[in-house]
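Support case: user asked for a sample of complex input and structure output to validate their parser. Sending the pair below.
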Amino acid sequence: MKMKGAFLIGIVLGVFSGSFNGCVTKTASLKVEKTLPQEKLAYYNDTFDKLRTDLWEKAGYTHNEAQKSNFKLGKTEVKEGKLWVQTETGCFSMAGLGSSYTLRGDFDIQVDCQIDFLEGVYDMDQSLVFNVIGKEKEIGKADTVFMCLLRRGVRDFSTFFSATRKSGELHVGNWHKIEKFNGSLRIVRIGDEVSTLYRLKEATEWKKLDAFRFPPGEVMLGLKLQNFVINRASITASASATATFDNFRINAAEQIIEEEI
Amino acid sequence: MKKIALGFLSVLLFCLAFIATTTPSLSSDTTPTGNETKRYPSQETRHNDSFEKLKDDMWRVSGVLINNAEKISDEIHITPSTPSTGCDIAPTLFWKGKFASKEEDARRYFMEAIDLCPGFIRPYELVGNHYRKKGDREKAVAFFTKAADLGSTNYKLYYLLASLFFQKGDMDEASRYLKRSLDLRGDYPKSLQLKSKIDKERDTSGPKIILYEPSTRRGLSLVRPTQNISVRGIATDKSGVAWIRVNAMDTPFDTRGNFLKDVPIHVGSNTIVVEAADGLGNQSSLSVEVKGEAYAMPPLTKAALPTREKDLYGKSFAVVIGINKYEKWPSLEFAVNDAMAVSEKLKKSGFDEIIVILDKEATQRRILTELFHRLPEKVGRNDRLFFYFAGHGQTEDLPEGGKRGYIIPVDGDVANYGATAISMDQIRSLSSRIPAKHILYAMDSCYSGLGLNRSGGLSPKVSDYLRKIASMRVVQIITAGGKGEQVQEKGGHGLFTSYFLNALKGEADFNKDRVVTGTELGAYLRPAVSNASGQAQTPLYGRLEGEGEFLFFLGQ
């Protein structure tokens, strides 16, 4: 009984220590030295004034048969100079983009995003993801580092965290409780270390969220919003989740590999 | 039943909320905040491992509960689920294909995506590329073409299609697809490289060179006094003209390839060589022999003074055009009167053949036929030709800068005058087709962009001057006004023609030698018409080539 009481106290303390302002991060300065010149990188920067099919493919992927049998692509559109993504109702749904090119070696990428989580919706998840995903393995098993703004249907609060999945194992890093997010997400790889950073709107400095070991192979990039987490097997999704992305930039990249087509 | 279900759901949601709320706090508890050192999950402590397990357990529990809740929700029809269509499933297969390690697996996934969603463009492109890499050109083209037909906006697709047709030797199709690629992304380096290859394949010859002056007619040996000679012509090439040289001297040219270069000639045989190269480096050349003679002033006696045109000209020709009643342009009042009056004056001035073309006769076809087919057959090297036009004129601003003048025939279109009118470039080129010694164009209409050399002033009063200038070729032009000016009318004639007729009555004979030269005509008309019109209309005068003078004889 004592153990249980201590556990609950720990839980309560944990909830408060996980609030966004008391975060683990510090002001971060990371610089990728090995990079292509800016004039080369500029082509890949995207302010989402139009949907650039030369840079992006529409994202849409399911992880199991249950999801596959009841899935619809969400809406991925450019509206008012931003990439606007919205999930469908009544099904598993994903909206967003994956890059049609890959990065190799060191890189530094960032994107602005905004999400206001729906309150009181328990029959779906709300998951905004900015990720890099290795090309060496098939998609369901690929190594990945992702930054995630997540509201699980089973929770009454939302979280912001980054994580990596390597060889099928998920390692969740630091996380924060949040109500909504309006700011920028950034992923930097130098050597075999990937750092995740964020910057709230109006803030001037980046804060580091995590650092993970990650192989230096080819990765593609993703920006997406989905209404399910990977292991969700059923859904009713009575509402549409919505988010926006804007100002995608490649600040630095050692190598950008274009597809032949 | 519904009430029971909702009650049960409320309890479940309460439990879920509690469990879910506690779950992340565990994570926070085991992931110390304020940690400024690097932390690699794979190196985490057993404490962390137990956290992960606990966390997973919590997720699973919450997952079961939420699944139960959703089943109940389904029963009470909160939100009916929608079965996936083929096009909903296709993206998953597409992405599996994108990440497939084996080419054949990728192709299979893409084909499945196509089967499920035949309007999904991207898999066609990727399957096409699979076949292209395998060397199966026909299948590659089939899949690529399907993607194109479905409306792909992928510049790489059109580049690859163009390169496949290029390999097949079908340059037309290659060019067509390459254009689409470059329309989508004009700076795509691979497309630009292929364009250069296609251009090179299609263009293996150097620029076409046409010499307007000196004439290059076969067998003709030109005799010139020893002086500079103007070499004038045009070089054209579909790949663009890179450079033109006349006798190894770099020669400037305009955007259409027109060039003009003065080169010195010597007594005896002179070879003029015009060379040109296109943008691909293909070269061509043209040469013409010119015989240079020292100019010797003919002996002059009083009896030999050139007081009659027959002494200096073989035959005298005139083409006189006047148009009042246009088909599509506003009518004019006195253009026909002007033409008739000029014709009468020319008859009295000793012209042998005057071709008068009025109103409905003055079509583009008739005028061009007269100028470019009939006259060249009649006019000889020692003859003179006077061309008079009274009617509408138009000046076009060229996109690359500069201007081009037109005379408007009776059937000229208002909007499409570029195709239905006669450009001053055409008129000017007449001088290379007609070997007449002297040509004078008088245009009672307003133009700009004629590229005139302004008159150098009045002739010196020397007795042998007429003989000298009469021996030298010249093409001169006088127009009623510049671009944007309105032609004035007075006393039943256009103001310009009215003064032109006065000039031929002797008012332009400044040196009173009973001969009005082209230069005198210009020098008289320019201020006279300008003053009479209150500066609304100022004639332009200039010489298009040569050093001679067109001569009008006033009679005794």
